[in-house]
Amino acid sequence: MKRPPTMKDIAAELDLSVSTVARSLADSPRISRETRLRVAAAAERLGYVVDLAARAMRSGTSSIVGLIVPDIRNDFYSTAAKAIADCCQERGHQLVLAVTDDDPVLELEHLRNLRSARALGFIIIPSVTPAQETLRLMRTTPHVQFVRNCDRVESDWFGIEDAQAMRLAARHLIELGHRRIAYIGSTIAISTGRDRLEGFRATLREAGLAVDERLVKAGSCDSEFGYAAMQEILAEPERPTAVITAGARMSIGAYDCARAANVAIPSAMSFVGFSDSPTLRWCGEGLTTIALPIRELAVTSTDFLFRKASPDWKGANPCRVTLQPSLLVRGSTAAPCAISEPA
C-alpha cells in the first residue's frame, strides 16, 4: 500500500523547508501569498491531507465540535443540526453528531469520545437523568446547553420561552370559546416539559378554567406517546373540544391517532401542534402550531460556543438566552360546536 504524502514530500517538490510548508498550510501571514498558493496547489496535486490528530496534539484542541441530541428524527433537532453544521463549516470546523436516545449511558460514552478527540467544545440537549460523570465533563469542557436546561450543572443555556409557547396556544383556544382543553406534553423531569405544562396550567387558571387532570398527559417525547395519549383522551366519557400538543414528534402521533379515530378537525376537536415542520403544513388545511426560531437559536448558541472556546474568553456568570415562540394559525382550530353528547 502506497504511503500517504507528507509535508516533507511537498517541501521536496517545491524546494522549501518543512516549516515553511507547515506555516503555509496553516495560512500564516508570515508566509507570502504566492508561496501559500504554491503550497496549496502542490498539496492538492499530491493528495496531501492535514493530520488533524497531530495538529490537535500541538494545539490542545481539534477542529471538532460536538452536537449531542436525544433524537435526530425530530425536525427541530435536524433543522438545528444543519444550522450548527453551517456555522462550523464557515469557521473551518467539523460538526460531529451524536444521538443519545435519552440514554444517560450512551450520552456519557459520546462525551468521553469527544473529550478523547480533543473536541473544541460541544452543544448538548441533556438527557433526562445525566450521569454524575457526564456532569463533571460538562463542568470541565466548553459547552452550551441547548433547548433543555439541566440545573444540576451551572452552564450557559440557549432555549425557548417554553411557558410562553403554551400560553399562546391556550389563549388562542380560550379566545375561540373552548373551555375543555386537553394537553399532551413531555415529562416534567426535563425543563421543557415542566415549563410548558406550567404555562398551560397558568393560562387556564388565569381564565378561570379548571384543569381536568384526566386530560393532561405527560410522558416521552416520541410520536408513539403522542398517539397513546390521544387514545386515552378520546376514550374519556366527555371528550375535550380542543387539544394542545407540546412536542414536535408527539404532535404527529396525536394527530395520526385523531385521524385514525375519524375525529373531525376542527369541527369536532381543535388541534394545536408544536414546531413548524413541513409535515404539519400538509395535514388537512394545515395545523395551527407553535413556531420556534430554531435556526436563530442554533446560530446564536454556536457563535457563543466559539467565543467561549477562545483563549481570550473572560466570561464569568452563566449566560441565559431565550427566544420567543410565535403562533401560526391555520385550519385546525375553530370555535367549538355545541357541546356534544358523551362519546
Would you give an account of this structure?
It is a single chain. The chain is of the alpha/beta class and 343 residues long. The protein folds into three domains: 7-50, lambda repressor-like DNA-binding domains (434 Repressor (Amino-terminal Domain), Orthogonal Bundle); 61-160 and 294-325, Response regulator (Rossmann fold, 3-Layer(aba) Sandwich); 162-292, Rossmann fold, CATH 3.40.50. Helix content is 44%, strand content 16%. The protein has helices at 7-14, 18-25, 33-46, 52-59, 75-90, 104-116, 132-140, 162-176, 191-206, 223-234, 248-260, 278-282, 294-308, and strands at residues 64-69, 94-99, 121-124, 143-146, 157-160, 181-186, 216-219, 242-245, 270-274, 288-291, 320-323, 326-328. It is elongated, with a radius of gyration of 25 Å. The N and C termini lie far apart (73 Å). The relative contact order is 0.11. The model is unreliable at 56-60 and 339-343 (pLDDT under 50).
